[in-house]
Each structure stands twice: as structure tokens, then as C-alpha cells.
Design brief:
The chain is built from nine helices and eleven strands. It is an alpha/beta fold. The strands form three sheets. Strands 5-4-1-6-10-7-11 form a seven-stranded mixed beta sheet. It has a two-stranded antiparallel sheet with strand order 2-3. A two-stranded antiparallel ribbon has the order 8-9.
Length: about 270
């Protein structure tokens, strides 16, 4: 299957206590977060990789170019610049010119999700092959801060609601949006142009392409195949430390992952052999 990758890396990372460094260059065990995400992206052998940069873009681009020159000389990286942080939808829209003549699909990743495995993404891509738009979801024991996946009585996805916009009832949902999407490139930019910013953050949420796609009777699915341990992002120093712990645990207990379905979550047994 022909596909390319967009990596969202324009975040400033205000809560990382390092105001002169973009969040994507925050170090995890001696390497920047973007290093881990790039390695996984490259291993998927995409047609191309487009990285959205913003705050301190010169530092980030310099690191990426050095990384590519030293380890992946044959790979060409494209960049898109997000001058203002107006939301994830706006960030992806900044890539439109990079995909003006592209006819394949696009996998959207975030630079602050460093331990997502290539195997998980390959499974996601395979399961999403027949859909117009697919979102990768997971089940979290503590879903606070994540957008919730809304489903109907038949388990079909009917939308995604952000934490700050969710009702008390919606916040009880454990299935969360990972922020990872697989969608036809031309369709992606068509849907993004229809996003509105009438929410509590006044931002253009990429998640809204799901509800717009559903309104247009597109085949939209949510794939609950990602262990929560893999999809956790880094927005705070506390979350960075949590990721470090997961890495340590996984070296000795590779099967110690949070189950991905609500039923298995309730009956989970950890295999530490």
C-alpha cells in the first residue's frame, strides 16, 4: 500500500521546564523524542515523510537533518511550517502544499509519542486499508486528558470529544483517541478545510475530521489495537518519567501491557514470565 507520513512536531512544550527547546527535542534516555518517532516512521518505508515544525524550528530542523545525514542518507525529509499554534487540524493543513500532487494515503503521527512500535502501526494500517478514514484508539485505565471515542449501540464510531469539551458522562469513557490517523491524502485536506474552531480552546481540532467524515457518509472506523503503554504522549516532566519507567519494565516484562478492550481490561492478568 502506498502511503506517506506526517509527523506533528511544532509544539513548544511549555510544561517541560525548558523554554528554549521545542518539545520534540526533549530528551528521553539521552535521545530527543523526535529521534524515536523518526526511527519508527522510517522503518515503515513510506513514500515520504513531512514534518510540521514551528517553535524553534531551526533547532529542530538542524537536528533532523544531521540525523538523516548520519543514518539515512538516501531519505528525503520535507518540512511544513506552522507559524501559529492554532490546533492540530491547522498543523496538518500546513502540509497541504507538500501533498498537492500525492495520490496515496497519509499516516499522521505525533513527535511526542516515542514508544509506539512499528508492529502496532503496521497492524493499524492493515486494518484500515478498506476505510476512508481510520483513527487509532486505545483503552486507558485513567483516560484523563485524552479525547474520548464515542460509539453507538452497535459499537460504530460516531465521533470524538476532547476532554475539555466532554460532558461528565463522556469523561467516564475509557476508549481514547491516540491522535494517530490513516486517511486518503486528498480527502484529508478536503475535510480539514471544513473544520471550525468553535470549541473551548478556539482551535482547529484534527479530531473533527471524524465527525465531518461521518456526516458525509464516509467509511470511518476506530481501531482499538494499540496498547495504552505505547501511545502515551509526553506533555509534562511527570509523563516523561512515566515513559522511562515503561521502557525499563518492558525490557524485563515485554508482555506487561494494558489490554486494549474493555472486557479484557476488567479481567487482566499480567504475565511476568
Amino acid at each position: 500500500m502506498s502511503f506517506s507520513i506526517i509527523i506533528l512536531a511544532a509544539g513548544l512544550g511549555k510544561r517541560m521546564n525548558n523554554p528554549d527547546v521545542p518539545k520534540a527535542l526533549t530528551e528521553l534516555n539521552g535521545m530527543p523524542l523526535i529521534h524515536y518517532v523518526l526511527n519508527v516512521a522510517i522503518s515503515l518505508n513510506p513514500d515520504k515523510i513531512c514534518i510540521v515544525v514551528g517553535h524553534y524550528k531551526d533547532k529542530l530542523v538542524s537536528y533532523i537533518n544531521d540525523f538523516i545525514a548520519n543514518e539515512h542518507q538516501s531519505l528525503t525529509i520535507e518540512y511544513a511550517i506552522q507559524e501559529e499554534q492554532l490546533g492540530t487540524g491547522h498543523a496538518v493543513q500546513c502540509c497541504e502544499n507538500n501533498f498537492a500532487n500525492y495520490g496515496g494515503k497519509v499516516l499522521i503521527l505525533s513527535a511526542d509519542v516515542p514508544i509506539l512500535r512499528a508492529e502496532t502501526l503496521l497492524g493499524f494500517i492493515e486494518n484500515s486499508a478498506k476505510s476512508n478514514l481510520s483513527v487509532l484508539s486505545s483503552v486507558a485505565t485513567n483516560p484523563f486528558g485524552y479525547g474520548r471515542i464515542l460509539r453507538d449501540i452497535n459499537e460504530n464510531i460516531i465521533g470524538i470529544v476532547e476532554e475539555k469539551d466532554a460532558t461528565e458522562l463522556e469523561r467516564l469513557i475509557y476508549e481514547i483517541n491516540t491522535g494517530i490517523y490513516f486517511v486518503d491524502a486528498k480527502l484529508l485536506f478536503s475535510l480539514i478545510k471544513k473544520i471550525k474552531n468553535n470549541n473551548n480552546q478556539a482551535e482547529y481540532y484534527l479530531t473533527d475530521i471524524v465527525s465531518i467524515g461521518l456526516q458525509e457518509n464516509l467509511n470511518v472506523i476506530a481501531n482499538t489495537i494499540a496498547p495504552f503503554t505505547e501511545i502515551q504522549g509526553v506533555n509534562t516532566l511527570e509523563q516523561l518519567e512515566e515513559i522511562k519507567k515503561i521502557i525499563v519494565i518492558s525490557k524485563f516484562y515485554p508482555t506487561k501491557l494494558i489490554p486494549t478492550s474493555p472486557k479484557s481490561l476488567l479481567n487482566a492478568e499480567v504475565n511476568t514470565e
